[in-house]
Amino acid sequence: MRDGPDPVTVLVVDEEEDVRQESRRIIENLGCRCLTVDCGEKGLEILDKEAVGLLLLDLKMPDMDGVEILRIVAEQHPHIPVIVITGLATAETVIEALRMGVYDFIPKPFDPDQLRIAVNRAREKLRTESAAHRSYQERLRTLEDLGTEKSRIHTIIDALPAGVLVTNAQGQVVLINPAFKEQIGLPEEIETGHPIDRYVPEKELCQLVMAISQGRRLAFDNVPPYEFSIGSEKFLQVRARPVLGEKDECLGAVITLEDITAMKVIDRLKSEFVTKVSHELRSPLSTIHEQLAVVMSDMVGQASSTDTQLLSRAKEKTQGLISLIGDLLDLSRIESGAVCEAPKPVILEDLLENIIDFLSAQAAAKNQSLTLSRPKVDLPPVKADPLAIESIFGNLITNAINYTPEGGRIEVRIAQAGINLQVAVIDDGFGIERRHLDKIFDRFYRVKTEKTRYITGTGLGLPIVKGLVDSLEGRIHVESTPDRGSAFTVLLPTA
């Protein structure tokens, strides 16, 4: 028996033939049109050609990584809900997928009811969004139906699972749905018409909403998500945007509220796991590394070249593992907010000079020039954790040395850019192709070419840099041309 009147086209992208056939049977019994492919490349081609309403995606693809497919779908087809079907999901994969807007997860192996429920939920979401769009279009047609349309929109907003609150230009609440009341813990009978601080206990959030309502934060891109907690066990994320009139005047603000407690729990468990495993591994690896050094010292002049090479390789690998553990612990501390907790004024020029002095021997070993260019006038300090600053520019300059050939040039430039200080690390090294630039800050992502494949590294240096810059409320930008070099530019707010 067919369930539902809407003929939604569902695309199933899965490398397993049995999963595709079973999914097709279930989906077509629900009254939907079903298309199936066995790889990500074919799936993306169909998305470009067909009016697909729902995507079922396996994260393990023979030709493309499932997370990469999700990133492309989020950029090119953001209106299509995605249900992930996988038996290999990790906590990190789940978090990354959720950040890219995945609608639902179904673990393998699954039973037919799981798939039916997930598909019906997604169809209901599509129906709700379609109804909202139709209501908006009808509202624009005539003023005579304004009262009716207002009732319909209220009905839709009240049915949304996410919390929604709308304010006017004075910061007074004019609409609030049941989900918002439930998530904040407000009584159901509370009325609208009061200032925002009557409904929301978070003082800084109320100030942000007032600023948006009064037109002081009109740019959409300048309003980041705001997170706060209710008690110690419930975490909420707010997104706020201005409501603009026909002449782009600010009429108020709309706030959506989402419960992110589950994501926070996953983040905490992941950080605890990484920290525990890393601590357990660091001590024995350090011992092995030291013992290898002692053995190599005792065997000087006695061991064969083959034995010496094997011992050197083992020592190099243990050092790499120790570095990887250190980077994982740094990332864990960044994610938990344990860094940059006590910022203080830092004279950036002096700190950069110390870093360059320390790394100059490494550059000299490759016959490279490593210089610092600074303005003649004194620059204001930045307010930051000195250890975080050292880690940021230590990583960037070390990368420049590693990825610049013998006899190359590396320059560190510092200047004032408005209320920020700008530091650029510029080299004339191997460079990076444009297709890699949006991925180099992803964890474990390394650009490997014929010229760089012998360069060792963990793939965590740039993610650490990005995490620290974000925690300092700064920005980082990269420009690069293959065989001509790269420029990493960091903007940090002054004290």
Architecture overview:
The protein is α/β, with parallel strands linked by helices and 495 residues long. The chain contains 13 helices and 17 strands. The protein has helices at 17-29, 40-49, 66-76, 91-99, 112-141, 146-159, 178-184, 203-213, 261-298, 305-335, 348-364, 386-402, 461-471, and strands at 9-13, 33-37, 54-57, 82-86, 104-107, 163-168, 173-176, 226-230, 234-244, 250-259, 344-346, 369-373, 382-384, 409-417, 420-427, 475-481, 485-493. The strands form four sheets. A five-stranded parallel β-sheet has the order 2-1-3-4-5, sandwiched between helices. The protein has a five-stranded antiparallel β-sheet with strand order 7-6-10-9-8, with helices on both faces. The chain has a five-stranded mixed β-sheet with strand order 12-14-15-17-16, with helices on one face. Helix 1 (17-29) packs across helix 5 (112-141), helix 9 (261-298) runs antiparallel to helix 10 and helix 10 packs parallel to helix 13. The longest helix has 38 residues, at 261-298. The N and C termini lie far apart (67 Å).
Give descriptors for this structure.
495 residues; alpha/beta; globular; single chain
Briefly characterize the structure.
With 495 residues, the chain is of the alpha/beta class. The chain is built from 13 helices and 17 strands.
Low-confidence stretches: 1-5, 142-147
Largest sheet: 5 strands, parallel
Task: For the record, give the distance between the C-alpha atoms at the N and C termini, rounded to a whole number.
Answer: 67 Å
Overall pLDDT metric = 80
Structural class: alpha/beta
The helix content is 40-55%
